[in-house]
Recover the amino acids of this structure.
């Protein structure tokens, strides 16, 4: 039985329970079909030739020898992607990233692609393509890239957000600024002021399934794309524009997805597969290798953050200021903007200023990674909170509680907060047994808070009632983390039928109106809002049908517990002569009462509500080697209303696990030549089960007033605190402040030795 | 009349103003009047702006009604993972 919520004042029957996920058996038996599992008759094998250089002008590409190789059916280069008439700068960047035109901007940048009868032929053809490069100086480090004499990636990059616009090009694509009050005045009022620089390495989402698609475009301008994606409607829209196709004539079907976390919100190979198919007039399958995923899909930003914070001896933060420099790859992004917005969002600050700088570097194009940009900013801020608390002799959790944002606080990014959940997560953390558990030798405990916005966006759903009374809910927002189970629960709740009588289906792009991607923690929030509206439309229709059957006015029909009742009191009306009609009863007579029973909704699901989390972590550090072990980890987060608590807990645990990997191990390592040195899971090590303890979770339910059931998105916030929670734990274990993620054993050891040397 | 606050990145396109005063009943009316007053903002409004009304962020719904005396804050559009 689900819990009451103060918002809806209802007792949930289905929502809040933990049934088996409907897609579970398919996934564990191998029946589920992922990106590479689909095949089309006569399909060709697609392969991409990638730049071995970090930065180079492309002088010429000679494909003539490859074209003559037996079995080669098509070769495409940038010349096959027409950009005339495309004015959207983001789309132009996508095209250039999918296929380099004038310059190769990073090791792995695509320069040509082949479609051949088999993989062996395609590989041989790639070797026959001759690319003449002029190698240019490169820059991969964020702080080096902002120096005046740094190699310039784009000589037309004049920093946006600065007035007047600079007349000299630089690698700083955009500057953004947020804040309020007077930070100089705030620092004057502080008893303790600390300044530090924090750095974080570039990490990859590490989804297990590589990007994969099968594309087919005919000479009549119609096409199909089967693809592993977080948003097939977005892919359709963008691919149609890139290829010059009509959106309606391009059918995009999303496969099952083996992880995305933001990395599959972006096009990488799909336009290439479509272009090859159009040229060859045959379907083309294109699957990235793991090495290609690392070198040429979208990792998160590497960052460097200068931060200054001041506090009174009573624990009041008087001022906070940060400059956040985020790499965005070779193209402009908004990653530093998000870092600047989220950095101090957990706290009630009178004086705060953040500046974000988007920095172009010779690395792959940055893409979203679960609450994009927030974890790095939180690493800096939450580390400083711990250090400030230590300096004034206050418990870090008490200082967080004292300064936590609350309803009515002006957020550091601008607006005043409505009801928010940071305070309750901190209160829960303070009471949690983990906070008072004893620590062993060489162990340290850390905690950190995290913030993320969440959003909703366009959603479109259909509800169809079968002749037996079972229900199909069709959505266009793909299921990454259990959305089909959650949506089936919501529909069962709204219609008043059992969960196992609801089937949730992800439709292709021909079947529904536009749906946003599964990102921004929007999947369950937005699709459930639309599904509820679809259900309510169908219920209104079924009440009318019952009225027709009973020959009474529809106002005399009440809907309760999945049944139509005649009489004003519904279930409790003993005066009615009409036995209640179930959905199955009404479905049986549907042909006589108006035809199929259905509901539909198309909405913009705004009002997602911001999200907060607090994490607690115990780490053991071997002082001789710097090796770390996560001893215990607890996640406390607000879910608004947990539709399927097991999957909410799974999101909390997944985000924490990814954050732990990022904090301790994961990092893109570039050589002096600007080439990626660790493009594989052996050298880029993500945590496996044996690396981690069971991650404990505590779900708080502070209803979102903008959702009928009070639901908030839960998919992203859990990755925000781990970098800082682990940083604080390692710092407490070693008594050395950690300022550089990942905190790999050599880096921890170096920090210990440096501290010891400074003590001497 | 609503006070419409601009995040730092927008201010150069609005002559450096921290806020502008605009009377509007919907987000659509607000953005239209804003673009009329500050033409440099027009391209940003089309693709880069979200509107916070009393702390709730609206990315897309231009039909949203703006309550009297509501606090309005223009923000960058949020990207998610």
């Amino acid at each position: 039985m689900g819990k009451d919520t103060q918002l809806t004042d209802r007792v949930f029957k289905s929502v809040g329970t933990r049934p088996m996920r409907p897609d579970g058996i398919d996934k564990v038996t191998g029946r589920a079909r992922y990106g590479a599992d689909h095949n089309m008759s006569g399909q060709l094998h697609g392969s991409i030739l990638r730049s071995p250089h970090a930065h180079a002008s492309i002088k010429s590409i000679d494909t003539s020898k490859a074209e003559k190789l037996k079995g080669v059916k098509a070769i495409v280069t940038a010349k096959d992607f027409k950009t005339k008439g495309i004015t959207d700068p983001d789309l132009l960047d996508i095209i250039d990233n999918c296929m380099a035109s004038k310059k190769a901007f990073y090791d792995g940048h695509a320069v040509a692609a082949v479609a051949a009868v088999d993989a062996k032929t395609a590989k041989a053809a790639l070797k026959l393509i001759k690319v003449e490069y002029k190698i240019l100086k490169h820059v991969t480090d964020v702080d080096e890239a902002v120096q005046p004499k740094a190699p310039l990636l784009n000589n037309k990059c004049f920093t946006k957000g600065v007035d007047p616009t600079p007349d000299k090009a630089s690698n700083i694509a955009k500057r953004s600024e947020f804040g309020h009050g007077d930070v100089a005045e705030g620092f004057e009022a502080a008893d303790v002021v600390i300044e530090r620089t924090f750095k974080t390495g570039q990490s990859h989402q590490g989804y297990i399934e590589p990007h994969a698609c099968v594309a087919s475009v005919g000479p009549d301008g119609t096409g199909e794309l089967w693809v592993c994606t977080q948003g097939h409607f977005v892919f359709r829209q963008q691919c149609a524009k890139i290829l010059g196709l009509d959106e309606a004539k391009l059918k995009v079907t999303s496969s099952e997805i083996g992880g995305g976390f933001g990395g599959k919100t972006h096009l990488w190979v799909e336009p290439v597969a479509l272009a090859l198919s159009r040229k060859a007039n045959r379907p083309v399958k294109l699957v990235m290798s793991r090495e290609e995923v690392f070198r040429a899909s979208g990792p998160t930003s590497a960052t460097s953050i200068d931060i200054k914070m001041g506090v009174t001896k009573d624990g009041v933060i008087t001022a906070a200021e940060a400059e956040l420099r985020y790499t965005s790859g070779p193209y402009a992004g908004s990653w530093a903007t998000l870092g600047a917005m989220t950095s101090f969002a957990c706290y009630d600050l009178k004086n705060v200023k953040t500046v974000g700088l988007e920095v172009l570097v010779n690395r792959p194009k940055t893409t979203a990674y679960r609450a994009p940009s927030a974890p790095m900013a939180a690493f800096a801020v939450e580390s400083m909170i711990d250090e400030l608390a230590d300096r004034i002799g206050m418990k870090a959790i008490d200082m967080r509680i004292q300064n936590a944002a609350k309803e009515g606080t002006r957020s550091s990014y601008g607006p005043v907060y409505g009801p928010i959940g940071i305070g309750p997560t901190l209160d829960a953390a303070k009471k949690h047994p983990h906070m008072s558990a004893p620590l062993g030798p060489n162990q340290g405990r850390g905690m950190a808070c995290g913030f993320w916005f969440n959003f909703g966006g366009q959603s479109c759903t259909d509800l169809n009632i079968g002749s037996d009374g079972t229900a199909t809910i069709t959505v266009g927002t793909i299921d990454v983390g259990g959305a089909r189970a959650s949506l089936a629960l919501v529909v069962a709740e709204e219609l008043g039928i059992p969960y196992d009588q609801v089937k949730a289906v992800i439709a292709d792009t021909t079947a529904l109106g536009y749906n946003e991607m599964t990102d921004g923690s929007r999947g369950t929030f937005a699709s459930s809002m639309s599904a509820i509206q679809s259900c309510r439309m169908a219920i209104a229709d079924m009440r009318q049908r019952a009225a027709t059957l009973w020959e009474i006015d529809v106002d005399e029909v009440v809907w309760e517990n999945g049944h139509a009742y005649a009489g004003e009191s519904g279930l409790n009306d003993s005066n009615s002569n009409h036995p209640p009609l179930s959905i199955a009863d009404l479905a049986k007579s549907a042909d006589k009462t108006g035809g199929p029973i259905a509901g539909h909704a198309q909405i913009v699901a705004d009002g997602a509500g911001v999200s907060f989390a607090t994490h607690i972590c115990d780490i053991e550090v071997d002082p001789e080697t710097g090796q770390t072990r996560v001893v215990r980890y607890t996640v406390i987060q607000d879910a608004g209303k947990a539709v399927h608590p097991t999957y909410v807990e799974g999101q909390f645990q997944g985000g924490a696990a990814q954050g732990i990997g990022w904090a301790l191990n994961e990092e893109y390592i570039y050589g002096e030549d600007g080439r990626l040195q660790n493009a594989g899971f052996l050298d880029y090590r993500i945590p496996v089960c044996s690396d981690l303890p069971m991650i404990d979770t505590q779900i708080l339910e502070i209803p979102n007033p903008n959702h009928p059931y009070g639901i908030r998105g839960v998919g992203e916030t859990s990755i925000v605190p781990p970098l800082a929670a682990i940083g604080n734990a390692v710092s407490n274990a070693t008594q050395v402040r950690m300022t550089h993620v990942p905190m790999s054993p050599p880096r921890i050891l170096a920090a210990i030795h440096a501290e010891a040397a400074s003590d001497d | 009349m609503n006070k419409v606050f601009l995040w730092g990145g927008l201010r150069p396109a609005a002559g450096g103003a921290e806020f502008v005063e605009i009377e509007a009943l919907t987000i659509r009316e607000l953005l239209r009047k804003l673009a009329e007053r500050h033409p440099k903002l027009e391209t940003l409004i089309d693709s880069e702006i979200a509107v916070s009304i009393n702390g709730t962020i609206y990315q897309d719904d231009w039909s949203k009604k703006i309550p009297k005396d509501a606090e309005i804050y223009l923000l960058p559009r949020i990207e998610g993972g």
User: Anything to note?
Assistant: The radius of gyration of chain A is 28 Å. Chain A has three domains: 35-136+210-257+264-296, 303-454+609-759, 456-592. Chain A touches chain B through 49 residues (CB under 8 Å). Chain A has 21 helices and 27 strands.
